[in-house]
Predict the structure.
Amino acid sequence: MSKVAHYLQEHLTGEVMTSPDARRYFATDGSILALLPSIIVYPQNENDIRKACRFTWQLAERGRVIPMTPRGAGTDQGGGALGTGIMMAFPAHMNRVIEFDSKSGVVIVEPGLNYGKLQQTLQTHGRFLPPFPASYEYSTVGGAVANNASGEKTVKYGSTIDYVRGLRVVLANGEVIDTYRLNKRELNKKLGLSTFEGEIYRSLDTLLDENKTVIESMVRSTTKNAAGYNLADIKRKDGTFDLTPLFVGSQGTLGVISEITMETEVYNPQTTLIVAHFDTMEDVQAAVIEIKEKVDAPSAIEMVDKHLLEQVEAINPNQLKGTVEAPYPAAVLLIEFDDGDRAQHKNVKKAKKILERYTSKVQEETDPQAQEKLWKIRHSSATVVTHNAGTRKALPIIEDGIVPLDKFREYITGVYDIFSRLRLEVAVWGHAGDANLHMQPYLDLNQVGDRQQVFRLMDEYYNLVISLGGSTSGEHNDGRLRAPYLEKMYGSEVYNLFRKIKKVCDPYGTMNPGVKLDVSLESIKPMVRTQFSMEHLYDHLPRS
Ligand SMILES: Cc1cc2nc3c(=O)[nH]c(=O)nc-3n(C[C@H](O)[C@H](O)[C@H](O)COP(=O)(O)OP(=O)(O)OC[C@H]3O[C@@H](n4cnc5c(N)ncnc54)[C@H](O)[C@@H]3O)c2cc1C
């Protein structure tokens, strides 16, 4: 065991491991990349995180940089949960609901808490956390916050960032801060602190003031965006200031989240589901835009395309039986409403009227069991994601682009075009109401040609998304894989501002380095695994 591991073992309450098995387990996440960490730490409490950060800071002051990577369940699809130094794994011990106020619905949790468990607990109190990712049954709340995750309910309810009221964060030097919206007086107090926290508030306040127009230029015309740092809502016009939006979605690159305070919503399990079949993507785009404009908030607008249905049928001919029959339409939309009885009835009626102008195949369902069966159309994407086509596997490399809604058709046509040019089988699914689509091409990472295809595909795809005014990530975040496209997407002024902010919060580069910023495509090529598998996720069926 190294001196560093030995020191940590002596000073932390939680376990410290350096066995090859443990290191190998944490060398992969949900991405196509691999990096071997040197030490695994299972923090028992915030004090353990604090001590570990303090120690790496002191070493870095003396010129030795040991990266610190926080980790939830490791389902990240961009390599954000990988690192070469200390892997800090939260689910083992820091997995509790600390407090739940059933009146206000505010819940305080530790980051390693399983998202599915939290959801179950909340639902027993008639509440839920709407921006849950498809992976919620096997991922953590901390991971969702650090990724600014979202999912099928985001079209109505927003992303994780809209639910985080405050955080406790362990800074790079081991100091602990509480983030929440500060009024002017509270901000002034922070600005006067002689601590690292004070330094962060002072530097950020100045940077945000000096770069107002740069920050304004960051805003996308997309409904959500998980790429880069959230700078737009830190300092408001009324002078209030909150570091929470900065840490949400920052993937452990600015600090380690040790406690999360979140708001929740009232949960209504009595929903109506409408399933509509479309012959063209033009009609899909037009219908979605009209519904979003004219009908009060559907709680989901999800889509699968014809190619996905064809692939599912080829893999498992019985899976779609009784839900959708071949020959398949260009796309199937699943639109859900979860308002109260009267409003739901009214909104469903309005939505159906709009849909019936675009397609004659519209089905309405209120029975939960029948709905569950229909939802399988959308969730059948998991069959494609977990299937091996010979030695080829479905790879998450371009799985999360988002564009403005009025560019949806161009986006899909562009994707079909790229796949056809590169002679790859295409299948597309995802959040039509947000124009946020998922796709995972079949490639064999053991073949040199296919490894080259990965990078060709990423280049073409991300150029398409950026050219349409979109974002490289709607919900899965940058990690390592998408990080090389961040500067192209935001431009060099915004990118340099990101760098300055990183430098303020992490002056020695110990906080999850190599994630989000200063990553070149060349630097990640050696990290690409030769075998892609989701081994540590196979305990659960991915609901992709
Ligand atoms: C099949 C499949 C489907 C998916 N579907 C979705 C989806 O619908 N929507 C979506 O948003 N994502 C999705 N994802 C991506 C991912 O599962 C989610 O973003 C999830 O919320 C990550 O949680 P995790 O616990 O696995 O985090 P991890 O993968 O462990 O970590 C994610 C990032 O957060 C950082 N992090 C973790 N804990 C902390 C902490 N305490 N402090 C600071 N940083 C921390 C990590 O360093 C890493 O950068 C999917 C992944 C898979 C494999």
In short: The chain has 20 helices and 20 strands. The pocket of flavin-adenine dinucleotide is lined by residues 29-30, 69-77, 80-81, 90, 111, 133-135, 139-140, 142-144, 146-147, 149-151, 251-252, 256-257, 475-476, 512, 515, 537, 542, 544 (CB under 6 Å). The longest helix spans residues 448-467. The longest strand covers residues 164-170.
